[in-house]
Amino acid sequence: MAGFHGRQGFHRRHAHRQWGPPPSPPHYGGFSGYPGWSYGPPQPMPPAPSPPPSTPRLGTEIVTLLLRTQIEYYFSEDNLARNVHLKMQMDEEGWVSVHTIASFPRVKRLTNDVVLILRSLQPSPTVEVEDGKMRRRGTWKKWLIRR
């Protein structure tokens, strides 16, 4: 049997292994750690940062104006002439849900607050708002897609 040298050979090769718990590291005395380090029980994690505000730091008045301008563009004659996606979102009376408009990327970048979106459109001469929906004021029938 190659490699077997009896009990003594086995003992010599594995003499470094000991049965029982590993030996404790040597203690050099006098060292209590680095300044500012604590060796007590684990400390709780700091609270997570709060989520970003729904309206950026531009200020509500500016965001309101930007929202109204953007959504008035969506319901403009020029855009509705080309925007089949928006026209497909209209119900039989031309209404589009505020949640649909809030999901558009340019509106999403401004806010995710649907109440602010609806409030920003109150003075609009182009878009009318009712019950969480909006549509082009006056000529909405012209833009309906027959299904």
Summarize this structure briefly.
Residues 8-17 have a biased composition (Basic residues). With 147 residues, the chain is mainly α.
Task: List key phrases describing it.
WH-like_DNA-bd_sf; 3 strands; 7 helices; 3-stranded antiparallel sheet; WH_DNA-bd_sf; HTH La-type RNA-binding domain-containing protein; 147 residues; La_HTH; elongated; mainly alpha; 36% helix
The strand order across the widest sheet is: 1-3-2
Low-confidence stretches: none
Strand content: 5-15%
Output the helix-strand order: HHHHEHHHEE
- Which structural category do the helix and sheet elements fall into? mainly alpha
Domain HTH La-type RNA-binding: 57-146
Protein name: HTH La-type RNA-binding domain-containing protein
Biased composition (Pro residues): 41-55
Biased composition (Basic residues): 8-17
